[in-house]
Amino acid sequence: MNQLRYSLFILAGACSYGVQASVVKLATNAGYQASQMTGSQYLFGLLLLLIPFLLTTRISLTFKQVAALLGLGVLLSLTGVFYATSIQDLSASIAIVLLFQFTWMGIFIESLYLKALPSGAKIISALLLWAGTFLAAGISSEGMEWTGHTKGIASGFLAALTFALFLFFSGKAGKEVPAIQKSFIISAGGLLTAFLFVSPAFITDGTLTGGLWKYGVLVGLLGVLVPVILFALGTPHVEPGMATILGAAELPAAMIGAMFIVGEHLTFGQAAGITLILIGIAVPQFISSRRIGPKHLYSG
Q1: In the predicted model, what is the mean pLDDT of residues 224-235?
Q2: What whole-number distance in Å separates Cα of residue 88 and Cα of residue 97?
């Protein structure tokens, strides 16, 4: 039961990431830039975490622990930066497919770490997720234009790699650190990294107070506060490969959110893709629950 609870934490965190994409879409439709949304996401995420950080139990940390947690924030922030670069050079559907290569990358990273081949359940899951992503993104063989987009393709793969690394190390860095304290430091690392790529001018030029703050609070909540805390609670207790698979819930959540929040329509192919992704997420959980004999608890 505890294992299921930790898995649900990661699943809910991934869904929160997915829904925030609709808020970003609303903000860009209102005239705000994607870079401004990235900066405000981590700014408000850190501010939202500040109060619980001050009110909850904290422990003394070593420099190594702080550096590791800041590094997680760097990886998470770079994912957003690379994805934004990819989507500027490619169609949104291809950029999404490239980002979601993090599913097999995460399983591969876990295999390298454990020096063992992935289980059959994870391989089946990865194949279902891969096929489901193509369907959900609405990609056809005629619409795939790869030539002349080296920057976008490279950025898309880098976004996938940084997110896979974030999920992997999230379960290892600062395992003994309270979730709120861990999340606050991760978010600080994310904000510092974001401001290396995004000009903070929107804070002082009136853009923030002129209306951006309404979207900033929401993306800070959905894109930092909720998912980072939930990942901090769940990933230390779940196998890294399984955490990667659960993270794939981001795409169905993003598409369902776009349907209800932005008013976009869902095609039959996209619905089929979402169904495949959900089946891919459920397969390892189902096989694990049916396993006979003593339960294998991942100790990291």
Answers
A1: 91
A2: 14
Using CB atoms within 10 Å of the CB of residue 171, give its burial: 0 to 12 exposed, 13 to 18 middle, 19+ buried.
buried
Strands (DSSP E) contained in 44-189 are none
Global pTM value: 0.85
* Among 128, 171, 194, residue whose Cα is nearest residue 10: 171
Number of H helices, E strands in the chain: 14, 0
Q: 138-171: per-residue pLDDT in tens?
A: 765 445 555 667 888 899 899 999 999 999 998 8
Within a 13 Å sphere around the CA of 119, how many CA atoms are in the beta-carbon half?
Answer: 14
Percent of the chain at pLDDT exceeding 90 = 38
Cβ proximity of 170 and 10 under 8 Å: no
Q: Which amino acid is present at 202?
A: F
**CA-based Rg of the chain, rounded to a whole angstrom?**
19
Residue 178's CB is within 10 A of a number of other CB atoms, namely 15
What pLDDT is stored for residue 36 in this prediction? Answer: 87
How far lies 249's CA from each of 30, 206, 224, 268, 288, in Å?
Answer: 27, 36, 16, 19, 19
Which of 28, 27, 33 has its CA nearest to residue 197? 33
The arithmetic mean of pLDDT across residues 69-91, rounded, is 87
- Find out whether 194 and 223 touch, Cβ atoms under 8 Å: no
What's the rounded mean pLDDT across residues 262-274? 85
Burial (0-12, 13-18, 19+ Cβ within 10 Å), 242 = buried
> For residue 106, what are the CA distances in angstroms to 142, 146, 237?
29, 24, 16
- 192 Cα distance to chain centroid: 18
**In this structure, how many other beta carbons lie within 10 angstroms of the beta carbon of residue 35?**
16
Q: Assign 269 to helix, strand or coil.
A: helix
